[in-house]
Amino acid sequence: MIFEELAKIKNEVFIMDFLKKCTEQITFLIKEIQSRNKDSLREAACLISNKIEKGEIIYIFGGGGHSNMAAEEMFYRSGSLICVRPLFMPGNRMGDTIMLNETEGLAPLLFEKYNVKAGDVLIISNAYGTSRMNIDVVMEAKKRDVRTIGLTGTEFPKHLPKNFRGRHSSNKNLHEEVDIFIDTCCPYGDALVKVKEHPAPVGPASTILSSVALNFLLISVTEELINRNVEPPILKNANVIGGVEYNEKYLTQYCGQIPELSAFWTGAGLKVEESR
Known about the structure:
Elements: H1 2-36, H2 38-53, E1 58-61, H3 69-73, E2 84-86, H4 97-101, H5 107-114, E3 121-125, H6 132-143, E4 147-152, H7 155-159, H8 174-177, E5 180-183, E6 191-193, E7 202-204, H9 206-227, H10 243-254
Helix pairs in contact: 1-9, 2-9, 5-6
């Protein structure tokens, strides 16, 4: 019995060591995002604020499986900008996305569907920055004179050879093609912790890091707008007192430009199902 308890304690210590390692690594990477991107965050915040000041909207695309969550993160999210329209490509979800990742030439259809035009600002968020879908989108944006902000990393492009499976036929990298690059500091391989001798690391970091970078951008935009004496169109949590009333003016303002908001806004008041 004593030896069983000792073994249990020893195992718990090992587990805590691995959890500590994961915590230390993710904390380090978050600090790296902040330190590496001071200038690019400021530049991107100015670009986005220019559009918001004119009453226009911002677009976001998260291409390739889990990267699609970036578009979800910025859409009708408490504490986020209400004036962001996500480009949701059918099939761009886990379970379906491999088919799209292997297909080039779909970006024009996406731009036409959402009426993305010259002068618009498009955020492209992708963990690895090499997939066909994202390169297609940034190349199409260039053709249409759409300004792009890329949230991605550089480690996968450094390690993956040309013509590697999943790469775009052009072999281009997202961070080199966008107008403004924000480094999410995603490590090669994504997962952070190797437990004992197991060959596959665990604890993927890309979604956490992308969300942190997006929220750093959001905070930078808010600060820039306030410095300009422009009220930031931030969505309040509808589950706090006064939240619904606060949000109504923004939903009224942007519903015409972002039809997807009709899922929450009837024109006469918020629906029962609210943002979390």
